[in-house]
Amino acid sequence: MRASKAAALFLCWVAFTLAAAPPTSAWAESPSGTQEGPGAVFARMRAQLPRSRIDRPRDLVVLRGKEVALPGEPVAISRLRMVVYRLDEEWAVIPFQIDERDAGGRWIWPAPAGAAESPAAEGEGLFTPEDEIVFRPRDLGVRVARTAWPKGTIAGVELEVQDPVTGHRGWAYLFQFDEPVPPLPAVDDVRAYAASAALGDSFVTPYYRIFYPRRGGRFVPSVMTELAIDGKGSERHGPNLLDREKLRYEGRLRFLPGADFRRNEDRIDARLLGVIDGPLRAIRKIERRVRLRPWLDARVESTTIHLPDRIIIEEPDGVPGAMSFLVRDVTARLYWDFQPPKGSTVFAAPIPKGVPADGKETPVEEALDGLPSAWWALRTPQHGALLAVFRKAGKRGTRSPAPTLLFSDDAAPDPPERAPGGRPAIGWRLTNPGRRAGDGPDQVHLYVLEDFGPGTEKIVLARLHAPLRVKAGPGLAR
């Protein structure tokens, strides 16, 4: 083992020419002219090796299978491992997951527990160009020459990850192994729990706990009713911050002049389509059905991606494209009724210094409702903060109206709901948000942060708009 480590260090050292040529004897002359032993030589080599310096510990690296050209026939996912080289433990398998898509780019959803197996989809169980690979940049290691790759590998690809903000880099290697395949590390950062039909579904990570009830009473599967956070990521979640998530549509019926169209989340049928439960992210898919007429249902699918420290909601307004045929001037309201602890503060672009979430609406807070802002934040005194960012998709060369804030700091009913919700209510209004063929999904990113203050959003937004870059290649020959 010691010899292989020395060989790997030697190859890295030679490949990068970061120091003088290796000595020909067991002893070498140091820069000061004195003799130094092999241990000192290797210590100097370690100090000169390229290291992973990416400082984005919460992010994930996501790339498509087509970006990773493994040689040979399609490979069984079970024989793939993501591996890095570390100076203290040599080669190490790191947590990763491969989420499968079919030839049309649609997720391949596993059969629900207790249900009959779903028909085999194209590429199921095999690594294909449509699949997505996910791993953590904080696990990256140093670069190693191909001649030092671990034993038992049949093929491999070098993945160089770069932070475009700082230019820092790190390396990982996707290897196909012969039998026996190294075991995966016991890591489960995102855990999905499917409860009984009378309860619901929950997702738990070190940073948050979230709950979606099944249909029953006034709740539907698409409605978030619990969100507890721990901004430090120690899984000591605070109290539930939510009364409930809300989704409201308003518009005018095209064929009945003067007639209003209104729907809220209680009058929208929703059903769970599937959950992909991985160690690094979990993906939840639902279908919303809005009944426009007894003979016409408008349907839209919405995907929620649960990462360790954030939630990404795709198609957050849930407006089916079929609505545009019968309804005009549609406005969607997507917001959350919070019940935060005393001492919490709300931030947004128009109020960078924040306002207290105390249930007493001031003139400044009244003016805040309806102003444009792509983000808002809720800071709690003890358990961290939530930062919500709305990202609009490209509309095939056109620009749809930007979302405007929905904000209310008093506990007032929101018709057709009779009971008042929590306070404050924070979210967005979107005008004419219907989808057309070829449109990508809008997204809401809900980040759990350790704290929030004026300007914190700039750091998060800079990284959101500059994702980590990955370059795949055959690796160094020597």
**Count the strands?**
30
Instruction: Quote the beta fraction.
Output: 35-45%
Shape: globular
The main sheet orders its strands as 18-19-20-21-29-26-25-23-24
Please mark out the parts with pLDDT under 50 across 5 or more consecutive residues, or reply none: 13-34, 41-48
Number of helices: 5
Q: Whole-number radius of gyration?
A: 26 Å
Proportion of helical residues: under 10%
Q: Give the terminus-to-terminus CA distance.
A: 20 Å
For the biggest sheet, the summary is: 9 strands, antiparallel
Question: Mean pLDDT, nearest integer?
Answer: 80
Structure classification: mainly beta
What does this structure look like?
- The protein is mainly beta and 478 residues long.
- 9% of the residues lie in helices and 38% in strands.
- It contains five helices and 30 strands.
- The strands form seven sheets. It has a nine-stranded antiparallel β-sheet with strand order 18-19-20-21-29-26-25-23-24, with no helix packed on it. A five-stranded antiparallel β-sheet has the order 6-5-11-10-30, with no helix packed on it.
- The protein is globular and about 75 Å long.
Task: Set out the fold topology.
Layout: H1 2-16, E1 28-29, E2 35-36, H2 38-48, E3 61-64, E4 75-76, E5 80-86, E6 90-93, E7 96-99, E8 126-127, E9 132-135, E10 153-162, E11 169-177, E12 191-194, E13 200-204, E14 208-213, E15 226-229, E16 242-253, E17 260-264, E18 269-277, E19 282-293, E20 296-307, E21 310-314, H3 323-326, E22 327-338, E23 345-348, E24 351-356, H4 363-368, E25 375-379, E26 385-391, E27 404-408, E28 425-431, E29 443-449, H5 456-464, E30 469-473
Antiparallel strand pairs: 1-2, 3-9, 4-8, 5-6, 5-11, 7-9, 10-11, 10-30, 12-13, 13-14, 14-15, 16-17, 16-22, 18-19, 19-20, 20-21, 21-29, 22-28, 23-24, 23-25, 25-26, 26-29, 27-28
